[in-house]
Design a protein that fits this description.
By secondary structure, the chain is mainly beta. It has 3 helices and 9 strands; from the N terminus they run ββββαβααββββ. The protein has one domain (17-149): Electron Transport, Fmn-binding Protein, Chain A (Pnp Oxidase, Chain A). The longest helix has 9 residues, at 76-84. The chain starts with 16 loop residues before the first strand and ends in a 19-residue tail after the last strand.
């Protein structure tokens, strides 16, 4: 075979999503998740991976629901902050001045500043090594008008997303 060997490590492109969740005490948090993808089309489901040492991990275990958000390129500073600071150290959403409202279907915050929010109910999870993968059934999708096409479908290519 004329192929070159490569180092064995994760090789798929990372997702650039923000996941918000809420603890049983009502505390909201959000973090950037590098492992996220579709995992079923019937029912429509999204899978997100969270390391057990992360603050949001315990919140997800307490209250099995989450919201996946996509941010615009001009929101990169907020995205960086959410991906580098811990909710253990304070309220990240308040620090950034982000607006969070209750989900329409799930008990998790929808951050209205981001153009797309996908409410999910956790159906199952499994440890895959470093991450626990939470499979969430899509319960509702909220999107700015530019991200919804004429057929009413989500179109993530319609804007300048991270």
């Amino acid at each position: 075979m004329a192929k070159k060997e490569a180092e064995i490590k994760t090789v798929m492109p990372s997702a650039n999503v923000i996941v918000s969740c809420r603890g049983e005490d009502g505390r909201d948090n959000a973090l950037v998740v590098g492992y996220a993808s579709n995992c079923s089309y019937d029912p429509p489901m999204i899978m997100v991976g969270i390391v057990p040492s992360r603050f949001s991990y315990d919140l997800m275990k307490q209250n099995p629901s989450f919201v996946v958000h996509f941010a615009r390129e001009d929101q990169r500073e907020a995205w960086k902050y959410l991906g580098s600071e811990s909710g253990r150290d304070g309220d990240k959403l308040a620090h950034l001045g982000l607006t969070a409202v209750d989900g329409d279907v799930v008990n998790a915050p929808v951050i209205t500043d981001f153009p797309v929010a996908i409410e999910c109910s956790v159906m199952d999870s499994m440890m895959t090594g470093s991450h626990e993968m939470f499979a969430g059934k899509i319960e509702a999708i909220h999107a700015d008008e530019e991200f919804v096409n004429d057929e009413g479908q989500l179109d993530l290519s319609a804007g300048d997303l991270i």
